[in-house]
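[Automated response] Your request has been received and processed.

Submitted sequence:
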Amino acid sequence: MSVVTTLNFGGRTEEAVEHYRAVLDAEVLMLMRFRECPDSSFLKPGFEDKVFHATIRIGSTELMASDVGCDDPESETSFAGFAFAVRAESIENAERHFAGLSERGEVLVPLAETFFATRYGIVKDRFGVSWKITVPGDAE
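Generated structure:
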């Protein structure tokens, strides 16, 4: 058995996928729009170009994303009770990821050296998803 996280971006999945591709080097493994879905019962007016299903890979982790279940193609999303933890390979990568995720987001804990890591910070991105960026203590 395996468990894969699926995020519902309430009509903003394509924007989220492209943002994560740009700032976290996410690889888009699959993206299907509602208009491409073989079962037309899922299609609602105004959703033709929204994302029915997407799978992305960040490092070795796969995430799924969708606009399924959203009643309004322009609605806001909210995510609470979890955060993704990213272990960056270098300070440079951590700073780049943190800066990209912070764009139009909210810095909760500034990226800085701590007693347990070379760098650590928490940011809530523009979609409301929280990310903990860490560079292990032995990284340069």
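Summary generated for your ticket: The longest strand covers residues 51-58. The domain at 84-136 is CATH 3.30.720.110 (Signal recognition particle alu RNA binding heterodimer, srp9/1).
If you did not submit this request, please reply to this message.
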